[in-house]
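Hi Prof. W.,

I finally got the CRM domain-containing protein prediction working! I wasn't sure whether to trim anything, so I left the full sequence exactly as given:
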Amino acid sequence: MASLAPRLLLRRRPLRSAAAALVTLCDSWAGLRGAGSPRDGALLEPVCGVSGRWMDGRRWWFHQPVRHGSTAVTLNTDGGFARFSVGGDAAAKEKLGRQPPGKAAKKKMSRKAKVNQLKWYRLKAKKKMKSPNPEVRIRYKLEKAKRKEEWLIEKLRKYEVPRSPEPVHDPEILTEEEKFYLKRTGEKKKNYVPVGRRGVFGGVVLNMHLHWKKHETVKVICKPCRPGQVHEYAEELTRLSKGTVIDIKPNNTIMFYRGKNYVQPKVMSPPDTLSKQKALEKYRYEQSLEHTSQFIEKLEKELEDYQKHVALFKNHGETSETISSKETMELSESNVQTIEVMELSIKEK
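And this is what came out:
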């Protein structure tokens, strides 16, 4: 059976020889199945040219397709030749039947088509970049920068962490003497927590709690830090660590006090903060967004200046044309007057 099926799939015969081959196939399959095989008359139905013939003392009707168990043999008689396929067309029809009626199968692009499409886009961009018109070049850069800005904003939305509802925190009230004492003792100590380009994330709060295990105060050094950003860091760290701000120095250093009744929390890194890696990714996207917005402002200013220059040049050309036309009119009038004077002088002579 296994050796006969590939031959039947590949070989093309006239209808009569194909029918005989199908009979042999069914006999071998029936011998394998034994008594549990279906009746011969129910398997096969008449096909042109072979219906009603007696083969091997039995009458066969050819059926299309013939199914034995899980194997389907399909006979195709288009074009005057018999073509057999085992399970191919039936499986394809089943797959087509499983697809929803509303959705059509997506046509996949070949690799060559994708490469050609990319080449076309690059050529189009190259033409705009090397255009002799400055306005075309500026507008192309501006559109590209705006697309990048939208993409960066979408990326930064993924790093927005929703704030969880926090219990009410009652900060301790310190007197001026206590603040002065804590400030002096905190300045003498060398323990500190750095806040770098990643900003405030879970690791910063964790380090603060680890320092508070042995020290009452801790210094948070923000570097690099934009003007006014140190106060934002102070508010954020106060909310996350439940500490008290003692002093904010001009060199972007914040002094924190843990509190009189401080108890180290079980989870020292708050859940509503970013990890170290994600904080770095967010910083990079923010930097890129900042530079892109500055570049967009620069391009918009260049485009505005160019349009002003074009308008000024156009007005200057119109005024020069009017001046030249007036000069020609004056010259023509003066020429007419000179000609008249010459004619009068000739007549007098």
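The chain is about 55% helix and 10% strand. Does that look reasonable to you?

Thanks,
D.
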